[in-house]
């Protein structure tokens, strides 16, 4: 026993499905990075730190402020947080002390997660018990990993170990 309402909904659904394209094109320029199949730039072999990253964490300290940035290897700065921002500066006693680094780490991690950046390359070597270590600990506690995953390498047919594809969900 079908009602007229059920028939009209099913016919609307059929019209929607017939007009929907069979192929979906993702126009997000960073989609391949999220799928781990984009190329990471190697840079030149004589460069000391190297450039094998998609996103890199840069922490800059000046005499008056501290700045944390995420740098994309092509587009430059993507996310930035400073202790000189009015909302943060108003809450801090000093904008270059340990508490400032601690709170900057929290805000920076939150902004990264809001923008969808959960992994980044970090080559900062902190001093044990220092300000920079507290900043990095807060970024990690905020949910951001400080290492990027490796690029997915397609296995050969004769390989014994076949890694899981990052775009497939195995639940």
Describe the structure.
The chain is α+β, with helices and mostly antiparallel strands and 171 residues long. The protein contains five helices and three strands. A three-stranded antiparallel sheet has the order 1-2-3, with helices on one face. Keywords: Mitochondrion, Ribonucleoprotein, Ribosomal protein. This is Large ribosomal subunit protein uL18m. One of its GO terms (cellular component) is ribonucleoprotein complex. It is found in: Mitochondrion.
Structural class: alpha+beta
Average pLDDT over all residues: 84
Unreliable residue runs = 1-7
Spatial gap, N to C terminus: 37 Å
Residues in β-strands, percent: 5-15%
- Largest sheet, spatial ordering of strands: 1-2-3
Q: Name the shape in a single word.
A: globular
Q: Encode the helix/strand succession as letters.
A: HHEEEHHH
Task: Report the biggest beta sheet as strand number plus sense, adding barrel if it closes.
Answer: 3 strands, antiparallel
Oligomer description:
single chain
Please, how many helices? 5
Radius of gyration: 23 Å
Q: Would you report the number of β strands? A: 3
Helical residue percent band? 25-40%
Explain the layout of strands and helices.
Blueprint lengths: L3 H16 L11 H4 L20 E7 L4 E7 L3 E7 L3 H4 L8 H18 L15 H11 L30
Antiparallel strand pairs: 1-2, 2-3
Helix pairs in contact: 4-5
Keywords:
5 helices, 3 strands, three-stranded antiparallel sheet, disordered N terminus, Ribosomal_L18, ribosomal protein, Large ribosomal subunit protein uL18m, Ribosomal_uL18_bac/plant/anim, 5S rRNA binding
